[in-house]
Amino acid sequence: MRYRRNDNRPRALLGGARRKQEASLQKAIVKALAWKGWVVIHIPNQATRGIYMYAGVLPGAPDLLALRAGRVIFLEVKTETGRVSAKQAEAHEKLRAEGFEVRVVRDLDDIADLLEL
To answer: Is residue 4 part of a domain?
Structure first.
């Protein structure tokens, strides 16, 4: 389901629709990767203020961690129109600087190479 700029719905409703689309995509990614033998871990990262930052919460951390045969990939799930926030971009750069692969996934085609084993 896509929403266009000229949609008459309030912005808050559009945001909710995007979150549902993102959740559906994330579920499809997890299922597809697990089916191909990947271990997929969701990174809960909602609260990023105060004490949570000192409890191992990284603001902007990617949504998923995919592991298989010694390979580690961080996956940020976004809708077609979803944007990577400044905190997310910063977290992605930190992870890349440590040598990890980070991908923004907008559909299953973005992980097609991971599904061809």
So the answer is: no
Segments forming the whole domain that contains residue 78: 11-115
Tens digit of pLDDT for each residue in 44-80?
A: 876 555 555 556 778 899 999 999 999 999 999 999 9
pTM: 0.79
Write the single-letter amino acid at 14. Answer: L
Residues 6+ apart with CB under 8 A from 4: none
pLDDT value of position 99: 98
- CATH number at 50 reads 3.40.1350.10
Residue 3 lies in a domain: no
